[in-house]
Amino acid sequence: MNEKIMVIIPAFNEGNSIVKVINDIPKDLVSEIVVVNNGSNDSTERKARDAGATVLSEDRKGYGLACLRGIDYAKSKTEFEKPYIIVFLDGDYSDYPQEMEKLVKPILESDYDLVIGSRSLGRRENGAMLPQAIIGNAIATKLINYFYGAGFTDLGPFRAIKSEKLLELNMEDKTFGWTTEMQVKAAKKGLKYFEVPVSYRKRIGVSKITGTLSGTIKAGFKILWTIFRNL
């Protein structure tokens, strides 16, 4: 494969899982694994570096901020080094990194711009998504589909996108609305998107978003705000 594929993993206190994530990424598929340490106070940074990843730091807390830091790094690459595809993957080991080829294949073979790994279409371990996450995900995707004429089934974090199309989206969200913003803007701009079923398991550790009542409320509000502000 000649096209370069960069993996960006935002990570906050994922010291117990980050090595598993990195080790399960198909090394013959990707050109670089980038872990963005989002202000962790555990062993995330050291373990990610020891496992062979490029480690960046973004001390300002926020999932979107970590992703934006990774994008800035990708933009700084020389023309020869720039990735053709960027894959976003969580660092909590809830996704199955070995399924990455399923996400990049529609881009490489059918010229899709964006591929979402859908947990709704795939095999989900019991308890992998809390009830509030399942309900919130269903409501959010239905709203996006209604207002933007899309056909999404999930806001899953495991996704692949052509780097040039990602830059065209001018991503701005700094926290919980990151995945929503990408899909809303992709629909508005008419990007050619596709969903593939992916497997999903219980994460290692407690979710920073749906693991607490306050996190769930903040995330829900931010997702709804992101949907309506882009109309």
The N- and C-terminal alpha carbons lie at a distance of 39 Å
Q: Level of helix content?
A: 25-40%
What is the level 1 CATH name? Alpha Beta
User: Counting H and I runs of at least 4 residues, what is the number of helices?
Assistant: 8
Per DSSP E runs of 2 or more residues, the count of β-strands stands at 7
Based on CA inertia axes, which overall geometry fits?
globular
By CATH, the superfamily comes out as Spore Coat Polysaccharide Biosynthesis Protein SpsA, Chain A
Pattern of helices and strands: EHEHEHEHEHEHHEH
Spans of at least 5 consecutive residues whose pLDDT stays below 50 are: none
Structural class: alpha/beta
Beta content comes to 15-25%
Keywords:
231 residues, alpha/beta, Spore Coat Polysaccharide Biosynthesis Protein SpsA, Chain A, seven-stranded mixed sheet
Task: Give a quick rundown of the structure.
With 231 residues, the chain is of the alpha/beta class. It is 39% helix and 15% strand.
